[in-house]
Amino acid sequence: MSSSALFADLYEFTMLRAYFELGMNAQATFSLFVRNMPPQRNFLIAAGLNDLLHEIEHLRFEPRHIDYLGSLKIFSQPFLDWLADFRFSGDIYAMREGTPFFQNEPILEVIAPIAEAQLIETLVLNQIGLQTILASKAARVVAAARGASVVDFGARRAHGVDAATKGARAFYIGGVESTSNVAAGQAYGLPVTGTMAHSFVEACASEMDAFQSFSEVFPET
Question: Which of 17, 91, 98, 121 is the most exposed place for a label (fewest CB within 10 A)?
Fold first, then answer.
């Protein structure tokens, strides 16, 4: 399993070295919240916590990570040795995924020795930010649909495989019924859906022939 240890902005590591060498290890609280709602938004939907906790639980600095940081020539060996033994020991308090929240209301708080809280800042913002945006948009679409079925078919337009797969889960949290993304179905146990595309129609003699041929293979559709 690949670790997210290096998934942080460089200044997180430069601050970590300063905390380490200055002996700054007091408990700190980092709060994640939205100062102002986006235009035409009355609330947002919390999402991304599951993936965030998984990443933090498995956060380890492997030898290749330490070697790379050492190659930057800005970190001392004692600091790199400390990173090699790093384990997150703090506490995380957060809203349940799917919970509506409002501006200036903390969605998540990290309480930990300041260096530990600092290290995961980028990861927290990344995992919670995108998935919360997508879940919130899905909730608005589902509300506008007024009971009509809404499904996710966004994988081909998403910004990469990871965003598409995690995004499918965020859409589901926001209220969509299913996803076309088979990888997300397998990874998160989401219901999957899909029939055929225009390419199948073009491969047949006519549109009617395509529908009839497909229904012979999948009579339940």
Answer: 91
In the chain, where the domains are located: 10-190, 194-221
pLDDT at 221: 80
CATH for the stretch 10-190: 3.20.140.10
- For strands 44-45 and 100-101, give the pairing: antiparallel
CA 149, 155, 157, 163 dihedral sign is: positive
Q: Is the entire prediction scored with pTM above 0.85?
A: yes
